[in-house]
Amino acid sequence: MQSSIGTMARKKEYIEEEVIEKAMNLFWRNGYENTSMHMLEKEMGINKFSIYSSFGNKNGVFIESLKCYRQKLNALIVKLKASGNGITGIQEYFYDFIEFTKETEFGKGCLVTNTANELREETDVNIKDVLSKFTEDIKAIFAECLRQDQNKDKETIEEQADFLLISMFGLSSATRIFTKKQLDNYITNIFKHIA
After folding, report:
1. What is the CATH architecture of 13-192?
2. In whole angstroms, what is the distance from residue 90 CA to residue 81 CA?
C-alpha cells in the first residue's frame, strides 16, 4: 500500500497571524523602506520561499501588516465610537493613542503615519490605497463624533474632521521624540481650537 504522505501538500510550520504581527512590529520600528527581505526573514522566523508563498512579496507582507495594525488599533476605535462624548471622546482617543504607541519612554508613532511620510511616486498603489482607506475611516469616525454637537453644520464638521486628522498625524510623529508633557500640551492646544 503506497503512502499518501508524499503526495500531500507541505503543512506550514508557522501561523500567519503570528509572523505578520512580528513583521508589523518590524515595519513599525524601522519603516517600510528600511525593512529588507533579510530582516523580515529573521524577524518572522521563516525563509523567503515561505514569505513569497504566503504573501507574494514584501508589499504583500506589508499590506497584511497594515491590516494587523488596524486590528490592534481597533480597540481604541471601538472605544471612541461607543463613547458618545463627541469632542471629549476624540480627545481621549488622542491620549489613548499615545499609550498605544509606547515602546519605551517614547512611542513608535503610527505605522500608517510613518509609512505616509515615506510615500513616493513609485510606491505600490495597493499600499497607497490601504493608507488612504485607513485615513478616510478615521476621519469619518471623527466626523461622526463631531455630529453629536447639534450646533455644527456640515461644512464645520468636515473642516474640523480634517483638522483633527492632520493633528493626529502630527501627534503620531511627535510621539517618537517629544516628552509626555509636551504631547499633553499639544493635545490641549488642538482641542482649544475645536468648539
Report:
1. Orthogonal Bundle (1.10)
2. 9
